[in-house]
Design goal:
CATH superfamily of the largest domain: Ribonuclease H-like superfamily/Ribonuclease H
Order of helices and strands: HHHHEEEHEHEHEEE
Largest sheet: 5 strands, mixed
Shape: elongated
Structural class: alpha/beta
Number of helices: 7
Radius of gyration: 23 Å
CATH architecture of the largest domain: 2-Layer Sandwich
CATH topology of the largest domain: Nucleotidyltransferase, domain 5
CATH class of the largest domain: Alpha Beta
Strand content: 25-35%
Helix content: 25-40%
Distance between the termini: 46 Å
């Protein structure tokens, strides 16, 4: 940041006086050490909410391990964060730390408290295909697209059976895309059903992508 300030000093002086020049590396270090993380996040969230109209429709929820945050001597695992990411704006809206003795599932409701998902689609991986997760998103005014995997028992089987053998009254929409790259041809097919009764545990459209 000191290097950036030195390079852009003439431009920065259009907005501030900088009577003592660009702050040093040590000054930036002292500043960041005394900042309240929770207060800083609150301020940044207010800024992000001001951009809400430009964030697009999709908010992707995903977990990330913070690089170089592990401690070999203390046998401490890397810090695990759950993030909400505005896909179209390419902006991280909020993040919460996942309890080291738990997983991402109980952290998601806390994350939703920090983000306005009203009128947006929240996507998440198969770990979050839970009734409680779906209910929390709907309660915040959002919709959801949650992944299913074969190890999720009857729910996955119910959805697969319905999409493979839908009733005559069901309206299924499909879209296929073919990509070439890395020495292979990849065909992706997405099938969407808007019948909320297609699986007992869902309250929205069923979506099944397949890739080859």
């Amino acid at each position: 940041m000191e290097d950036y300030g030195c390079v852009r000093e003439p431009w920065l002086r259009e907005f501030m006086t900088l009577p003592n020049g660009i702050p040093s590396h040590d000054t930036f270090s002292r500043l960041f050490r005394i900042l309240d993380p929770a207060g800083l996040q609150t301020a940044l969230l207010r800024l992000a909410q001001d951009w809400a109209d430009r964030l697009g429709e999709v908010v992707a929820v995903d977990g990330k391990a913070l690089r170089r945050s592990f401690e070999d001597a203390a046998a401490r695992s890397p810090t695990h964060l759950l993030q909400a990411f505005a896909s179209e704006a390419k902006l991280t809206l909020a993040q919460v730390e996942v309890d080291g003795k738990s997983n991402e599932i109980p952290a998601l409701p806390a994350l939703l408290e920090l983000v306005d998902v009203s009128g947006r689609i929240v996507t998440a991986d198969a770990m979050h295909a839970q009734r409680g997760t779906a209910a929390a998103i709907v309660a915040k005014g959002g919709d959801y697209a949650l992944a299913l995997k074969g190890n999720q028992g009857t729910l996955h089987e119910d959805v697969a059976t319905y999409l493979d053998n839908p009733p005559a009254s069901a309206e299924l929409l499909s879209h296929q895309r073919v990509d070439k790259g890395h020495g292979r041809v990849e065909k992706r097919t997405a099938t969407v059903c808007h019948d909320a009764g297609c699986a007992s545990a869902t309250t929205g459209p069923a979506f099944r992508p397949s890739a080859r």
